[in-house]
Design a protein that fits this description.
Number of helices: 2
Number of strands: 0
Low-confidence stretches: none
Structural class: mainly alpha
CATH topology: Helix Hairpins
Helix content: over 70%
Shape: rod-shaped
Number of domains: 1
Largest sheet: none
CATH architecture: Orthogonal Bundle
Length: 145
Protein backbone atom coordinates (compact mmCIF):
# COMPACT_ATOMS: atom_id res chain seq x y z
CA UNK A 1 0.00 0.00 0.00
CA UNK A 2 1.36 3.36 -1.01
CA UNK A 3 2.06 6.00 1.59
CA UNK A 4 -0.62 8.27 0.09
CA UNK A 5 -3.18 5.48 0.46
CA UNK A 6 -2.25 5.02 4.12
CA UNK A 7 -2.45 8.78 4.57
CA UNK A 8 -5.92 8.80 2.95
CA UNK A 9 -7.11 6.44 5.68
CA UNK A 10 -5.87 8.91 8.30
CA UNK A 11 -7.53 11.79 6.44
CA UNK A 12 -10.82 9.85 6.40
CA UNK A 13 -10.61 9.17 10.15
CA UNK A 14 -9.84 12.83 10.87
CA UNK A 15 -12.73 13.92 8.62
CA UNK A 16 -15.16 11.60 10.45
CA UNK A 17 -14.06 13.07 13.78
CA UNK A 18 -14.47 16.57 12.37
CA UNK A 19 -17.97 15.68 11.13
CA UNK A 20 -18.90 14.46 14.62
CA UNK A 21 -17.79 17.77 16.11
CA UNK A 22 -19.77 19.64 13.42
CA UNK A 23 -22.91 17.82 14.63
CA UNK A 24 -22.14 18.85 18.22
CA UNK A 25 -21.58 22.39 17.03
CA UNK A 26 -24.99 22.46 15.34
CA UNK A 27 -26.60 21.04 18.48
CA UNK A 28 -24.92 23.65 20.70
CA UNK A 29 -25.91 26.48 18.35
CA UNK A 30 -29.51 25.30 18.40
CA UNK A 31 -29.43 25.09 22.20
CA UNK A 32 -28.07 28.63 22.47
CA UNK A 33 -30.73 29.97 20.11
CA UNK A 34 -33.46 28.18 22.10
CA UNK A 35 -32.12 29.52 25.41
CA UNK A 36 -31.93 33.03 23.95
CA UNK A 37 -35.50 32.71 22.65
CA UNK A 38 -36.69 31.67 26.12
CA UNK A 39 -34.91 34.65 27.64
CA UNK A 40 -36.53 36.99 25.11
CA UNK A 41 -39.94 35.46 25.87
CA UNK A 42 -39.45 35.96 29.61
CA UNK A 43 -38.39 39.56 29.10
CA UNK A 44 -41.40 40.21 26.86
CA UNK A 45 -43.68 38.60 29.43
CA UNK A 46 -42.23 40.72 32.26
CA UNK A 47 -42.57 43.86 30.15
CA UNK A 48 -46.21 43.10 29.32
CA UNK A 49 -46.96 42.39 32.95
CA UNK A 50 -45.32 45.63 34.00
CA UNK A 51 -47.38 47.58 31.45
CA UNK A 52 -50.58 45.93 32.67
CA UNK A 53 -49.77 46.81 36.27
CA UNK A 54 -49.44 50.47 35.33
CA UNK A 55 -52.82 50.38 33.58
CA UNK A 56 -54.65 48.68 36.43
CA UNK A 57 -55.50 50.43 39.63
CA UNK A 58 -54.58 47.70 42.12
CA UNK A 59 -55.26 47.61 45.82
CA UNK A 60 -52.24 47.49 48.14
CA UNK A 61 -52.83 43.75 48.73
CA UNK A 62 -52.96 42.96 45.03
CA UNK A 63 -49.99 45.23 44.40
CA UNK A 64 -47.95 43.19 46.91
CA UNK A 65 -48.96 39.89 45.29
CA UNK A 66 -48.34 41.36 41.88
CA UNK A 67 -44.84 42.49 42.97
CA UNK A 68 -44.02 39.01 44.33
CA UNK A 69 -44.99 37.53 40.98
CA UNK A 70 -42.91 40.10 39.09
CA UNK A 71 -39.98 39.30 41.39
CA UNK A 72 -40.30 35.61 40.52
CA UNK A 73 -40.37 36.45 36.83
CA UNK A 74 -37.22 38.56 37.32
CA UNK A 75 -35.55 35.61 39.08
CA UNK A 76 -36.50 33.39 36.15
CA UNK A 77 -34.97 35.96 33.80
CA UNK A 78 -31.73 35.97 35.81
CA UNK A 79 -31.60 32.17 35.74
CA UNK A 80 -32.21 32.18 32.01
CA UNK A 81 -29.43 34.75 31.53
CA UNK A 82 -27.09 32.32 33.31
CA UNK A 83 -28.31 29.49 31.10
CA UNK A 84 -27.64 31.57 27.98
CA UNK A 85 -24.10 32.25 29.25
CA UNK A 86 -23.53 28.53 29.90
CA UNK A 87 -24.83 27.68 26.44
CA UNK A 88 -22.55 30.31 24.89
CA UNK A 89 -19.56 28.90 26.77
CA UNK A 90 -20.42 25.39 25.60
CA UNK A 91 -20.74 26.65 22.02
CA UNK A 92 -17.36 28.41 22.31
CA UNK A 93 -15.69 25.22 23.56
CA UNK A 94 -17.25 23.16 20.79
CA UNK A 95 -16.16 25.77 18.25
CA UNK A 96 -12.57 25.40 19.48
CA UNK A 97 -12.86 21.61 19.22
CA UNK A 98 -14.09 21.99 15.65
CA UNK A 99 -11.27 24.39 14.77
CA UNK A 100 -8.74 21.88 16.14
CA UNK A 101 -10.39 19.00 14.30
CA UNK A 102 -10.48 21.04 11.08
CA UNK A 103 -6.80 21.95 11.43
CA UNK A 104 -5.93 18.28 11.95
CA UNK A 105 -7.94 17.24 8.89
CA UNK A 106 -6.28 19.93 6.76
CA UNK A 107 -2.85 18.90 8.03
CA UNK A 108 -3.47 15.25 7.24
CA UNK A 109 -4.81 16.17 3.82
CA UNK A 110 -1.73 18.30 3.14
CA UNK A 111 0.55 15.41 4.11
CA UNK A 112 -1.42 13.05 1.85
CA UNK A 113 -1.15 15.50 -1.06
CA UNK A 114 2.58 15.81 -0.42
CA UNK A 115 2.89 12.02 -0.50
CA UNK A 116 0.98 11.86 -3.78
CA UNK A 117 3.27 14.51 -5.28
CA UNK A 118 6.36 12.62 -4.13
CA UNK A 119 5.00 9.34 -5.50
CA UNK A 120 4.24 10.94 -8.87
CA UNK A 121 7.75 12.42 -9.00
CA UNK A 122 9.29 9.01 -8.24
CA UNK A 123 7.09 7.31 -10.85
CA UNK A 124 8.01 9.97 -13.41
CA UNK A 125 11.72 9.46 -12.67
CA UNK A 126 11.38 5.69 -13.01
CA UNK A 127 9.46 6.08 -16.24
CA UNK A 128 12.07 8.49 -17.59
CA UNK A 129 14.84 6.09 -16.56
CA UNK A 130 13.10 3.24 -18.41
CA UNK A 131 12.67 5.42 -21.50
CA UNK A 132 16.34 6.44 -21.35
CA UNK A 133 17.46 2.80 -20.96
CA UNK A 134 15.27 1.73 -23.85
CA UNK A 135 16.62 4.54 -26.03
CA UNK A 136 20.20 3.62 -25.07
CA UNK A 137 19.66 -0.06 -25.88
CA UNK A 138 18.05 0.86 -29.16
CA UNK A 139 20.98 3.17 -29.99
CA UNK A 140 23.61 0.53 -29.09
CA UNK A 141 21.68 -2.17 -30.95
CA UNK A 142 21.70 0.00 -34.07
CA UNK A 143 25.38 0.78 -33.63
CA UNK A 144 26.24 -2.90 -33.30
CA UNK A 145 24.10 -3.94 -36.27
Amino acid sequence: MKKSQRMQILVDVAKRKEDEVVKLLARDRARLLEDQRKLDDLRDYASQYDQERNLLGLSPYLTTNYQHFVDRVQQAIQQQILQVKRSQQQLDMTMKRWQNARAKTKGMDWLKDKSVTEEVAIENKQEQKQIDEFASRLFFDRMNS
